[in-house]
Amino acid sequence: MTHSMMPERREGPVDPMPKSPHPLEEGGGPRRPETGSPDKDSLMKRMRKVDPKQAERYRQRTGE
Amino acid sequence: MRLFGIETEYGITRDDIPEMDPVVESMELVRAYLEASFERRWDYAGEDPHEDARGFRVSGLQQDREEDEFAKVDAHRPFSFHDMKSDLVLPNGARFYNDHTHPEYSTPECRTIRDLLAQDRAGERIVLRAAQRRNQTLGGGHIRLYKNNTDFHGHSYGCHDNYLVSRAVPFPALVAGLVPFLVSRQIIAGAGKVGTEAQEFGHVPGRYQLSQRADFMEAELGVDTMHNRPIFNTRDEPHADRRKYRRLHLIIGDANMCEYATALKVGTTRLVLNLIERGVAPDVELDQPVTAVKQLSRDPDLKAVVRLKNGRRLSALELQECYCEAARRELAGSDEESEWLLNEWSDTLRLLSQDRSQLVGKLDWVTKQWLLETFMREERIGWDDPWLASLDLEYHNVNPEQGLYLGLEADGKVWRMTTDEAIDEALRNGPSDTRGGLRGLCVQRFPDQIKSIQWERIQFAGGLRTHDFDMGDLFNPQEVRRCMDVFQYAHSPADALATWNHRKDMET
Question: pTM higher than 0.90 for the full model?
Fold first, then answer.
């Protein structure tokens, strides 16, 4: 299986919080994630591009 | 440690034709993922959604009148049942198929939250890749896929979380222990929704609520999944040795985009199942759970209280705190993952009451509400503006160039608990300690010899007879790893099975 069509996504946060020294960083459970303060500008541009009638047109059949 | 997995039905739309045929589009999408032609291999013998865990079998399942009409049309389509379903089993042990006109990705069975997150995210990339290939055929970006649960017209589709449970646990104890937890779990796991809706009257724009699915919960208990949906689904389809195990099949949950929300949704449910097994789940019983699930969902301020059978009134936060405190008392220090979950669960409940802004990028309903309220201020629109339902939908778009959640993720503004490397690995292989990984290994090594395959069994063709590989009780992780070693290096499935059966005979 190839994944050449998979778009690259950035991994690291722009303004990370300090990492927790929790032992799970190296252990078997989930790692504590990093985050930054939300920055709205690029998202607002993307949101304005959304067609206001998109949901009105969107029809699905009932699933489970 | 128990096994768990997530099934996600994706919404699908095509914008270059006036009326999309959802059966054809879901079929074509699933098949677009294949590099070879489709071959029927999924074995439906292990599936019987009519069996009810309360000890009886129903003669039929409910669906609404509209779906009845669709079913009549489907019966005359020029496809067989198996063609329509187009079941694929992938090299990571996942199932990818057309379920009720929705492309569905079911993760392989996982033992750790970390594996589950990687497998769930791998599912997003698999459906995206299928859509990209389908779009190449169609000559444009016409297919869009949504990891959500509603079409804003009264039609819902599911994201089910599943848990392997010992059949020794009394069924009434599961119900009593889980219902108040599930009713209140939406304050952590809700994906957020603009407006209210129901199968009967469609969508009413307006107030924001915590959950996509709460509006569709109509019963406390029941075997149905498409109509009269229950908080606690009683389908008894274990996909394992029926004498020993149940599969808890929860249909109340939303499809989460936030990895952190998925981790807490499944992780806290796992902890509560541990409490129930030990007989120490909180003793709370809701007076009207179906009313409560809607009432709590429609209160994003988290001030609403619901009545218990004993007359007390508790908020969703208080209900969750009951469970979290019981889990801390009983399960603290049991293993690293449980410890992480206990800390994050209690931190999240604290932040929900004190400083919700810190949960942006961690919980979907909080993240979506923040996005929409920011947009409303910028554009000077109110909750009744239809644009908001469209933005709600696009939050769940799995295309990174369009989706609002994935836009936040690309900007590094959400909590990641996976890495792209882990997701790539999850695309290639299932977990190394569950039968899901073993199933995937068989698909990788012996694709042409698989005659039929399902969750608990693989039938290999070979010579004059078939060879059955039964995984209905293969849950011990060390045993799984030993079995994987055998299948990894065997020349043929027959050799692998002979070696494996011989080893088991020697051990007994």
Answer: yes
